[in-house]
Design brief:
two-stranded antiparallel ribbon, 11 helices, 4-stranded mixed beta sheet, Trna Endonuclease, Chain: A, domain 1, Arc Repressor Mutant, subunit A
């Protein structure tokens, strides 16, 4: 349960973001918070996150004060092993104009959050649109539409053939582009239209690599993030044969 309930507002965008990282959708109070939650949902280094997680209380002279940060983020063990300084982090999400305008009233809240985090071995960070609203966010919003649910009603054989062709040919080509990959598989433009969603799906699933800090286009450099051994183990038919031939040419043996 959040430390503070978020109710619908007339002046600001509010709602909930669906997530696979915690059992319940997480609430937001602004479009900037919504965008930040999308970043967290897409970030494979994030184990889980929670909106309005705690309320920090402190005394200002004789007056009791309280402050509820926007989001608490916990990172995966892999990320913590790679970056030992990475601790659970409380985030405040604010537009830069609001930070400047309300700094005098916000500063005591942020100081209280910093003291709380020191006591509980966490971090406190402020994020603005400068960090959140980048080409990376635009790419994530684009890729979110290519999750598993998009292909829920697709024929399994057709889906397997499409992904098999893309994965095996991409592994063979090495670094290429979406357009070149499609052109290598077929010259049929209608087939290109059918295959393209699977390219973006494989990008979202981390099977295809691409620089998400640059706007995605048909000319964006892409590459396989899968090893030949992995592909040979999961594929069948002509696509498996193609992978095995590539591996054999490079003197790599695969257990049959």
């Amino acid at each position: 349960m959040p430390a503070r309930n978020i109710t619908p507002r007339h002046r600001y965008l509010s709602g909930r973001v669906a997530t696979t990282k915690v059992p319940h959708a997480q609430a937001f109070e602004s479009s900037l918070e919504q965008d930040f939650l999308l970043l967290l949902e897409f970030d494979r280094g994030v184990h889980r996150f929670a909106s309005q997680p705690i309320t920090i209380r402190w005394k200002d002279g004789s007056r009791q004060r309280r402050y509820t940060p926007d989001v608490l983020v916990e990172y995966t063990s892999t990320m913590v092993d790679r970056y030992p300084h990475l601790k659970p982090t409380l985030f405040e999400v604010k537009p830069e104009t609001i930070l400047k305008q309300d700094w005098a009233s916000l500063k005591p809240k942020f100081k209280a959050a910093i003291h709380w985090c020191r006591e509980y071995e966490c971090r406190f960070r402020i994020v603005t649109e400068r960090y959140i609203r980048t080409p990376y966010l635009g790419n994530i919003k684009f890729l979110m539409q290519f999750g598993n649910e998009r292909f829920r009603f697709a024929d399994r054989l057709i889906q397997g053939e499409a992904q098999g062709a893309l994965r095996s040919v991409l592994f063979d080509l090495g670094r290429t582009t979406p357009q070149q990959l499609l052109n290598t598989i077929t010259s049929d433009k209608n087939r290109h239209v059918e295959l393209l969603p699977y390219i973006w799906h494989l990008v979202r699933c981390n099977a295809i690599g691409v620089d998400l800090n640059q706007p995605l286009t048909m000319q964006s450099p892409i590459w396989s993030l899968e090893t030949g051994t992995q592909l040979a183990m999961m594929m069948g038919g002509k696509h498996r044969t193609r992978i095995l031939q590539i591996l054999e040419a490079n003197h790599i043996k695969v257990e049959q």
